[in-house]
Amino acid sequence: YPSEFLMQKITEDNQIPVHLHVSVSLQYVAGLKGSALVEFFHGNVAEVENEELRHLMWSSVLFYKTPNVEVMACVLLSTKAIYFLLDDSFIHADEHQSDFWNKENSDCENSSFHLSRCFVLKLNDLQSVNVGLFDQYFRITGHSADHIVTCLTRDSYNTHTFIQQLMAVLSLLARTPSPEPVDKDFYSEFGSKNTGKMENYELIHSSRVKFIYPNEEEIGDLAFLVAEKMDGLTNLQSLNILLYVLAFQVNHVEGSAQNTSSLQPKTLILTSSDLFLFDEDYISYPLPEFAKEPPKRDKYQLADGRRIRDLDRVLMGYQTYPQALTFVFDDVQNQDLMQNLTLDHFGE
């Protein structure tokens, strides 16, 4: 340990997405290669001497206790735990959560070294993993509200790779075997007698961690919600959701020193007749078992919606992936909706 292949893979994965800005401490981590990266992990991050680093991924993350603050993190998966090296901006963005993140080291701010917060979720505390629609994100759930994190990969490949690596590492855990399951037929396994509704597809790993995948009904529920937002102008049978993707809406900040743009996370849904932007709650649903009350906001909140027939032109940037798209609408009837709608599927 570690093998040449693993060293090469971790080095290749150690790249911050170009559209996101991170603090100096995380830029330092992103500059490490090969053995230097493994040494950094063992010297600064790892909690146990004999654990092995197996996977590295850069992703935006959300915490259950701070659902409105999306922060960039370097996610490190080892044979013992999942480590989230967090961007410094998170600490300053949510000061009222000081009980969640103790601040005893804040006197280091003026010194010459850079301090990063590291959130640790031990694999033994892991209970379930919820994979989002079309593998755009996944939620890791531990035993309390402090141990629920959503990784917004916005990329099905990154999600798939991480889940595979996590399953492989969980297979190494020595847990007491669960009792032999009683043979069930299909309907008693997936159906609920109380509601008559199909449950989400569950895969229970040998480590007793549940991997929960969305079923077709989630798309049906989403289509119904979208039809509701269209004020019943279309019948549900003819409504097809063609695309669901987690993107960013670009808001240009005028008057600043540089011509900067802020990225607002949005869920883009394309149907055969409309284009929608939703603010989606990625962390609260499905409700964790210990939740006493439903979340304060709905899972989907409509931010903007336009008819495809009002689409005048689509401008595409010529930079490499990630790609920026600008949708220009000729929306004469609704003058109040004529703000600049710039959609960015990960671009600057």
From TrEMBL:
Molecular function as annotated in GO: kinesin binding
Domain of life according to the entry: Eukaryota
Residue ranges of domain Nischarin C-terminal PH in the record: 241-347
InterPro entries in the record: PH_domain-containing_M2 (IPR053015), PH_NISCH_C (IPR057714), PH_PLEKHM2 (IPR057288)
Ranges for domain PLEKHM2 PH: 112-178
Swiss-Prot/TrEMBL GO biological process terms: Golgi organization; lysosome localization; regulation of protein localization
UniProt keyword list: Cytoplasm
Signal peptide location: none
Main location per the UniProt record: cytoplasm
Subcellular location field: Cytoplasm
Gene Ontology annotations for the cellular component aspect, listed alphabetically: endosome membrane
Protein name: NISCH protein
Annotated organism of origin: Spizaetus tyrannus (black hawk-eagle)
